[in-house]
Design a protein that fits this description.
In the C-terminal section; belongs to the purine/pyrimidine phosphoribosyltransferase family. Helices cover about 30% and strands about 25% of the residues. A hairpin with a 2-residue loop joins strand 10 (about 210-215) and strand 11 (about 215-220). It folds into two domains: about 20-260, Glutamine Phosphoribosylpyrophosphate, subunit 1, domain 1, CATH 3.60.20.10; about 280-330 and about 350-450, Rossmann fold, CATH 3.40.50.2020. The protein is α+β, with helices and mostly antiparallel strands.
């Protein structure tokens, strides 16, 4: 078994501008079983390229051939790490799993990069995980007290320990044993010597899809990864389902009591690529419908509709189509600045938004502008954009958010500020309008968002989707949070020792 943690291709510390107003993506996972000889890692690398929008901080692949694992984990982008022609030589095998990440749990340290690997008495297992465990600290502390030794601060390693400690005879049963103890939103892809296993949390909060490329089976966070891998979409992995793929084909297991699905709405608002189909819904069409609903709810007399690129584009198209107001590219986005770009001084940092988003004066000058964004978090980026649009000569600026007001933090894999930092949780609509320096401000209603999803509205008694960031209605128990608020210590003391130079 060769277990290699590569030197970083490009060293990037986990750094976040104090006024950064962008919601950070969770992670992306994919895997392949039964690829043509030694092509497993290459197919997975293609899938990770398509999922790069879900995490740009680090990436990793684990492949298996002749019961031997080959793993590489790198800081940086997928193309930098796995773009070489020698990839299939370095990482041979017909089966592989991969992961691209933004660190929602743990830090950006190399040891936290996935897939996580462990040697068990039944052989090796590599796991790639998207989402967050809401009882991670509780389980971590419990395992440490029982003698477990952790090498990372990632919640994914807890799952490996739970699998290792299970008394079940078969690896699949051990995997299910571990799932029975974890809580939160997750999609998992695991690779053993002889099987690939996929699992989705009981509510289907995080997405996972199943496809085929030739005779090979593939799993991925989004359908856009299947497209990149040349795979055909078969179906979504169902909420609470475990799929096991080996030489005998595919087996579906539903080990837990049936519950109604509640997928995450932010997959449609922001996270998923617009060309993906998530839970049977086209992300692009949903976002356009969000814009149409926004125009119906918050229409205004204006000359042009301008998106905040890129995530605001489909909603702005929908708004323009519904309102009859012309759509214009009033803001041009640079695609050559990495998300981890660090400006050297405070003055340069203040200019950061103009480096990424530049106003198009010829489109904006003298115009009444409807500015469409996917969401408003803290408002720091929004006010900079509004000022830039006004400086380019806009006569009026009417800001519209294609999602409802974000009022509560997330604990299922979205790096979202605490409630005290969320603009809408602390200001009235009029106070927000004044702070953002706009002529008018409007947010899509929660029922409007549900209508964009094809529903008649939100079923308040039995919500159809996970929407706690808008409503405060968390779909699962938040054990770590409950214990912290109760004043009990749950953070593992040894985490403080895991500090990189």
């Amino acid at each position: 078994m060769r277990h290699h943690i590569a030197d970083p291709v490009v060293h990037r510390e986990h750094w976040r501008e104090p006024e950064d107003d962008q919601l950070r993506l969770e992670c992306g996972v994919c895997g392949v079983w039964g690829a043509d000889e030694d092509e497993g890692s290459a197919i997975v690398a293609l899938g990770l390229h398509a999922l790069q929008h879900r995490g740009q901080e680090a990436c990793g692949i684990a492949s298996v051939k002749d019961e031997r694992f080959h793993t590489e984990r790198h800081q940086g982008l997928v193309g930098e790490a796995f773009g070489g022609a020698d990839l299939m030589t370095r990482m041979p095998g017909r089966a592989a799993v991969g992961h691209t990440r933004y660190s929602t749990a743990g830090g950006s340290f190399l040891r936290n990069i996935q897939p996580m690997f462990a040697d068990l008495d039944q052989g090796g297992i590599a796991i790639a995980h998207n989402g967050n465990l809401t009882n991670f600290k509780f389980l971590h502390g419990q395992l440490v007290s029982e003698g477990a030794i952790f090498q990372s601060t990632s919640d994914s390693e807890v799952i490996l320990h739970l699998i290792a400690r299970s008394r079940k005879a078969k690896i699949v049963d051990r995997f299910i044993d571990a799932l029975a103890r974890i809580e939160g939103g997750y999609a998992l892809v695991a690779q053993t010597r002889h099987k690939m296993i996929g699992a989705r949390d009981p509510l289907g909060i995080r997405p996972l899809v199943l496809g085929q490329v030739g005779e090979a089976w593939v799993l991925a966070s989004e359908t856009c990864a299947l497209d990149m891998m040349g795979a055909t979409f078969v179906r979504d992995v169902e909420h609470g389902e475990v799929v096991v793929i080996d030489e005998n084909g595919l087996e579906s297991i539903k080990p837990f009591p049936a519950r109604a699905a509640r997928p995450c709405l932010f997959e449609y608002v922001y996270f998923s690529r617009p060309d993906s189909v998530v839970n049977g819904c086209s992300v692009y069409e949903v976002r356009k419908e969000m814009g149409r609903g926004l125009a119906r709810e918050w229409g205004v007399e204006a000359d042009i509709v301008v998106p905040v690129p890129d995530s605001g584009v489909p909603a702005a198209l929908g708004y323009a189509q519904e309102s009859g107001i012309p759509y214009e590219m009033g803001i041009i986005r640079s695609h050559y600045l990495g998300r981890t770009f660090i400006q050297p001084s405070q003055g340069a940092r203040q200019k950061g938004v103009r480096m990424k988003h530049s106003p198009n004066k010829s489109a904006l000058e003298g115009k009444r502008v409807v500015l469409i964004d996917d969401s408003i978090v803290r408002g720091t980026t929004s006010v900079k954009l509004v000022r830039a649009v006004r400086a380019a000569g806009a006569k009026e600026v009417h800001l519209r958010s294609a999602s409802p007001q974000i009022l509560f933090p997330d604990f299922y894999g979205i790096d979202m500020p605490e409630r005290a930092q969320l603009l809408a949780a602390n200001k009235t609509l009029e106070e927000m309008r004044e702070l953002l320096e706009v002529d008018s401000l409007g947010f899509l209603s929660i029922d409007g968002l549900y209508r964009a999803m094809g529903e008649t509205g939100r079923n308040n008694a039995r919500p159809q989707y996970t929407d706690h960031y808008f409503t405060g209605d968390y779909p699962t128990r938040l054990l770590d949070r409950e214990i912290e608020e109760g004043g009990r210590e749950v953070s593992a003391r040894q985490l403080s020792l895991l500090v990189s130079a």
